[in-house]
Amino acid sequence: VLTQIDSITHTWSANGEIVVARYWLGRFLEKTEPDSKQRAEILVHLGKYAQQQQGFQFAETVLQQASRIYSRLRDDAGVATVNEVLGWVLFDQATRRPESKAWFLASMTSRRKNGDKSGLCHALYGLICYYSLHDPGQVQPYLDQALPLAEALDDRTMMTSLYSSRFELADRQGDREAMRSLYPKVKRLAETANDAYTNAWNLTRIAVHAQKLGELDDAHQITMQAMDGFHRLKSPFGIAYARFLLANISRLRGHWRAAVEQYRECLVAADALHQKGFGAQCALGLAMAEVERGNVEEGTFLLGRYQKIADHFPDIEHPSCCLLYTSPSPRD
Fold first, then answer.
1. Whether the Cβ atoms of residue 163 and residue 178 lie closer than 8 Å to each other
2. Distance between terminal CA atoms of the chain?
3. pTM of this structure
4. Neighbouring residues of 211: CB distance < 8 A, sequence distance ≥ 6
């Protein structure tokens, strides 16, 4: 039965059918025994899907239930899986909760001990995201461990994520030669990735890569692909974030009226979704667009709004991508 559940959840993930997945998993859960491995497995899947829809409180609740079951069954592999997913649930929240590091480390240690290469790769990626935000100097050793694992497993989705992290590290280091070398590789990998949710977010990362290299037409096309993915996933936040990227592209092209309209739409979405950190980023983009088109007073007011909120959030509310958005560097 567990194999069957894994198979159908893999299909749902590949197709982005999160709402359908949560419904049927809930039905399956009703028929499980209280302390069975099957129940724990379903709870983990429910936690993952809840995380992907920003249902963090529900995700934490069901994952803690799964952890207790796995612990009673002395299933170390199950506990390691829960630890990793809990790490993502904490990391993806607006304040990037720092305790996510402990969960990723626990998962990494257990999976290394058990010889679970795929799980180890995912735990290492969690640490890459954590350190990209909190201590970028620690990223490279984890990348050096994770990339060979992902390549040996031919995990195209994970390879896309990891090479995107390498691109972002090169950007921090000012290594534009490495950025230009990595960009086409990441694009090619994304074309063959097979997880709808992760790939949609990876496409937003690649769109930002394109912006940083001054490839605005490329950035627009890739953002529209991500937007299509988020519509299929029924992800309001993903759609809003893609619209934010489109607003950035409009501003960078000097299309300020369009940019202002798009940023204002993003601000409305941020308020509706209670995403204050994302709203601050939208306010910053709007302020820059207003200043650039000559509305200095309005832009200054909006910058004040951004500053009041931004100090409370270490990063834009962008799930599992450790992305600090900045304006792109000029074309070489």
1. no
2. 56
3. 0.84
4. 219, 245, 248, 249, 252, 327, 328
